[in-house]
Design goal:
heterotrimer, A mainly alpha, B mainly alpha, C mainly alpha, B: mainly alpha, about 0% strand, C: mainly alpha, about 75% helix
Chain lengths: ~475, ~325, ~220
């Protein structure tokens, strides 16, 4: 297993360097290979980590990290394939593509490293690297608005991560009461410390961590960078930002929950997460009602789903936690698909403005239905994976006596559904006006862009209808790990 | 040290006399140093005494319509400046009988009373520049006041009392007391306030003759003859008093006479004058290195002093200052 | 209540920490971008010196290495990179702020006071440095936020972020002096990457807007 861990944390970096040196077609091949191999390697980890954590020096994988690895690697691979079609007709060839593939690989690599490193300090380093790499990718188009989005993103996210660093240091201090002044801040050690950690510093560390990493997760009120960055980045990058970057940061929050809950007891962490979750759902739901930009719409939908994740952890019941882990996977597939489809719309219609995109189903024989499925999946309709995961989260909330918040969750998810439905109905079902200058020919821009969406849809249906047994074991092992602190 | 011990009353009188007599001298030294820094020969060190002598020989005029206060103010202010040296450790490290008459705040009140009567007299004169100076001085006095208050709070938190003698005692007691941030911050804040109060750069151009830029000096423009002499002498004494508070309470309370022997008192006088000259040199260097701030930028200067003083109190509250 | 006087080491350490905070306030005041960057360099220098002091006092030899590294990075490289950028964007030498200096200082005093008393209420004890230094580092982080919020140009905002990192470094000296060197080096390396990216994005911003100001970054909203 050591080899798998090392490969997962080196392949992306190697691919990044190679794509700098190779011609475009080779760089594309290398990127796709790296993405697919990483996805395969993550699947390899499923069975071993369902039984016990796998450790190799600085690297460590348990069931929780494997879940996040799969989500990340899936989008890495999917974005790699999608980019081939997305950038086919891009004006600035050559250096732009070189930079793009360098960034894509580095981004994928850094996000794969985050769930694999063993230690809160290294986790912080990995997440900070994801920030700076993705900020460069947001700015890669070099337009006024992308420069603006990138600047806001890097500044707000870095400031948030500054707080995250503070949290790390405070937790180190807490741990030093157990392990002495000099020790490695490894996950296993910190989890093992359990309730021996002093309460006050741990509480401080937890609040700072939720606020700091929450900035990257996109929790309201520190989500302000998110819609800008998601809408201005190249579409494959938007998909990775939304589907994996946000959840990788959420992974950090989850680790802090895991470490601090034995000390703080169940109430404190959960209350904070529920507050952030409800706020995020509320603001995102309301913002979804008045969006005109397809990608911004999807970005707010991400805020909404991160809020759902927070609420799920806040409910804290085992079934809710299993729902959270499943939600991470399903959301990656659904949001990836939605962004990919939005990218196709952008290529086809040349705009992101919802008011100018009409007749999607007529024009796009594959992407139209796929987008429809993605939107329905994001709105938690059966038979897709998110239905199952949200159902579990709500069930956990009801079972745990948090009826009010479960009800709030359902109501706000419905509001979000309304917002999404109104916009995408216009985009897909209303036919384009028959004016000569507005004629868009029927047909898909590229098969490369459709293929990853088909795979994503299959994944969504599988997750919704009948998740494989191996995955079910993995998730229940993950729940045990998260609950191992005793709640 | 054995030998005759001077009566406390005598020492007290010597304290006041020292301030009274040495104040023009310190001013002269600063003027001289400043001139030298600018490459001029500069006036004699004793020039302020000659100025005083000359002014006392002139006739006094009062503007038409001014009240009795116009002429009483210089005398009241002068009396105030003679009172403050009794309260602060000018020469002795132990408290003299009248030293417990008032604390740092008490001294501050007396200095404020002096500033108040001078300001009122300036307003009474009806002269436009004097009135402008008086209003400006009062405004800036109002915003430096909180700084002084916070400095006093710091002293009170460090020593448990706000007697200047007690703080000097504490500072002498160990090196840890000197490096503690609260002490350094409060001392720096006080230094900035002193720069503002004595009309030095960056708040005011000391030797300037442009009435528009004046603050402190404009207030005395309408006075003449002996009254002007008293006002000038008073402001020199105020400068020396503030220096003494900064030096003998905060920065370097060493060299003070531990008992009332004549030798000890003489040494204390010498030490005090030496320390004042060093401080004066620092002030002269600052005078020559910075530009005067524009009038509305002075709030920034005072805000900086306020920041220092507030931080001093903060650090103390956390127990580590 | 009369708090006991700290020892000479504690007093010195606290004074140095206060100096870091004062330099942070100085940045708030500095109008010229160049002087702001120099103040940042000075602040980093003070933090590095403090690392050296703690190393000597607590006999943690790793901290010497850290002091040297952070000196090289934060006193030499970062200011150099940012200064070069400012020099190339010759149009502007001064940034703009949305509040005048005196008000900004008062706001920051309030914010810093919040940090001070919040930490004071936590009663965190440390063997390496006195608790006051921790409170001061929290105050530095908060004032750095004020700086980033009030300034309207990319250079000041970036410098604000870097100085925020200085505040966190100070905190790590107080409560995590024993943090393994490898992790500290990782943090510093990370900062280096961040600096490069900030520089690139500042360049992109300047290319797009022909200005360092951020006041016209208003296209994306809603």
């Amino acid at each position: 297993m050591t080899v798998v861990l090392i490969l997962l944390t080196t392949l992306g970096a190697a691919a990044a360097l190679l794509s700098l040196a190779l011609p475009t077609w080779a760089a594309q091949a290398v990127t796709v290979t790296s993405g697919v191999v990483c996805l395969g390697l993550s699947f390899v980890l499923v069975v071993p980590t369902s039984h016990a954590p796998v450790q190799a020096g600085f690297l460590r994988a348990d069931a929780v990290s494997t879940v996040f690895l799969i989500a990340t690697a899936f989008l890495y691979a999917a974005a790699a394939v999608y980019s081939i079609g997305y950038l086919r007709h891009h004006a600035g060839h050559g250096r732009y593509l070189q930079r793009f593939y360098l960034g894509l690989n580095a981004f994928g690599w850094s996000m794969l490293c985050a769930p694999l490193v063993d230690g809160l300090a290294l986790l912080w380093v990995a997440i900070e690297i994801t920030t700076v790499v993705s900020a460069l990718l947001v700015a890669i188009d070099r337009t006024k608005s992308s420069a603006e989005a990138a600047w806001k993103y890097v500044l707000i996210a870095s400031a948030g991560l500054g707080i995250g660093l503070f949290a790390t240091i405070v937790l180190y201090y807490a741990g030093s009461q157990v392990y002495g002044t000099s020790y490695d801040l490894t996950l296993s050690q910190m989890i093992a410390a359990g309730h021996r950690l002093p309460v006050t510093p741990v509480r401080l560390a937890f609040v700072l961590a939720v606020l700091g990493y929450g900035t990257k997760v996109g929790l309201v009120p520190v989500h302000t960078w998110l819609p800008d960055a998601h809408s201005e980045a190249p579409t494959p990058i938007s998909a990775m930002l939304s589907g994996s970057l946000l959840v990788v940061s959420f992974y950090a929050v989850l680790r802090y929950v895991q470490i601090t809950s034995p000390t703080l007891g169940a109430g404190f962490d959960r209350t904070i997460l529920i507050v952030f979750g409800v706020l995020s759902l509320l603001v995102a739901g309301l913002s979804l009602l008045r969006q005109r930009d397809v990608k911004r719409l999807l970005a707010y939908s991400s805020v909404e789903h991160m809020g759902i994740l927070c609420l799920g952890v806040g409910f804290g019941a085992p079934i809710a936690l299993a729902g959270v882990l499943l939600h991470v996977l399903a959301h990656a597939a659904a949001k990836g698909n939605a962004f990919f489809a939005a990218g196709v719309l952008l290529r086809k219609f040349g705009t992101k403005d919802i008011r100018q995109i009409r007749g999607g189903l007529d024009v796009l024989p594959w992407t139209g239905p796929l987008l429809l499925c993605a939107v329905l999946a994001l709105s938690a309709l059966p038979p897709f994976g998110i239905f199952r995961s949200e159902f579990q989260i709500v069930a956990g909330g009801l079972g745990d006596g948090k009826t009010t918040f479960a009800a709030i969750l359902v109501v706000l998810v419905t509001v979000a559904f309304l917002g999404m439905a109104v916009s995408f109905t216009r985009v897909l079902f209303i036919s384009a006006p028959r004016t000569p200058e507005a004629v868009v020919t029927r047909g898909e821009p590229s098969a490369w862009m459709v293929a990853p969406m088909v795979v994503g849809l299959i994944a969504l249906v599988v997750l919704g209808v009948h998740p494989p047994d191996a995955l079910t074991h993995l998730l229940s092992q993950g729940v045990i790990e998260l609950g191992s602190g005793g709640s | 040290m054995t030998g005759p011990v001077l009566a406390p009353g005598v020492v007290q009188a010597v304290q006041v006399l020292t301030v009274l007599v040495a104040a023009p001298w310190v001013t002269g030294v600063i003027a001289r140093v400043e001139a030298r820094l600018q490459g001029r020969r500069g006036p004699r060190i004793l020039q302020p005494y000659y100025d005083l002598g000359k002014l006392f020989g002139k006739e006094a005029l009062a503007p038409r319509g001014s009240s009795w206060l116009f002429l009483a103010a210089p005398i009241i202010a002068f009396a105030c400046y003679l009172t403050v040296p009794m309260l602060i450790p000018v020469l002795t490290s132990y408290g003299l009988p009248l030293g417990y008459l008032g604390d740092l705040l008490g001294g501050g009140f007396i200095l404020a009373l002096a500033a108040f009567v001078v300001a009122v007299a300036a307003a009474d004169s009806g002269g436009p520049y004097a009135q402008m100076g008086s209003s400006r001085a009062t405004t800036f006095g109002a915003i430096t006041e909180p700084v002084v208050l916070f400095v006093v709070f710091t002293v009170a938190l460090i020593t448990g009392t706000d007697l200047p003698y007690a703080l000097a005692e504490t500072v002498r007691s160990s090196a840890g007391q000197i490096v503690r941030p609260a002490h350094l911050l409060a001392a720096t804040a006080l230094f900035l306030v002193i720069l503002a109060e004595t009309g030095r750069i960056p708040v005011e151009n000391h030797g300037g003759t442009n009435e528009f830029g004046m603050i402190e000096h404009a207030r005395t423009l309408e006075h003449s003859g002996p009254y002007f002499a008293l006002l000038s002498w008073g402001s020199w004494m105020k400068q020396l008093i503030l220096y003494v508070i900064l030096i003998n309470v905060f920065l370097a309370p060493w060299g003070l006479a531990p008992t009332g022997t004549p030798v000890g008192v003489l040494i204390a006088i010498g030490a005090l004058l030496g320390k004042c000259v060093v401080l004066g040199c620092v002030v002269a260097v600052i005078d020559n290195s910075f530009a005067k701030l524009r009038l509305f930028k002075i709030t920034e200067f005072v805000a900086a002093a306020f920041l220092l003083a507030v931080l001093a109190v903060f650090t103390l509250y956390l127990g580590g200052g | 209540m009369r708090p006991p006087a700290p020892g000479v080491f504690d007093g010195t350490a606290n004074t140095v920490a206060v100096l870091v905070l004062l330099i942070e306030f100085g940045m708030l005041r500095a109008a010229l971008l160049r002087s702001q960057i120099r103040l940042y360099a000075a602040q980093s220098l003070v933090v590095s010196v403090l690392a050296g002091i703690v190393a000597a006092e607590q006999h943690v030899p790793e901290l010497y290495v850290l002091a040297v590294l952070s000196f090289a990075l934060k006193v030499v490289i970062v200011p150099w990179v940012v200064l070069r950028l400012v020099r190339q964007a010759h149009a502007e030498i001064a940034g703009s702020a949305s509040l005048n200096v005196a008000s900004a200082v008062l706001v920051s005093i309030v914010v810093a006071a919040f940090g001070f008393f919040a930490v004071g209420a936590l009663h965190i004890q440390s063997t390496a440095l006195p608790t006051t230094a921790l409170a001061i580092s929290v105050a530095i982080v908060l004032v750095a936020f004020v700086l980033m919020v009030l300034r309207n140009d990319v250079v000041s905002q970036a410098v604000g972020f870097f100085s925020l990192e200085n505040g966190v470094s100070l905190a790590s000296l107080v409560v995590a002096a024993g943090l393994p060197l490898i992790l500290e080096v990782a943090f510093l390396f990370d900062l280096l990457v961040a600096v490069v990216v900030f520089a690139v994005l500042m360049r992109v911003h300047h290319d797009q807007r022909a200005s360092l100001s951020t006041s016209d970054l208003t296209e994306l909203r809603g």
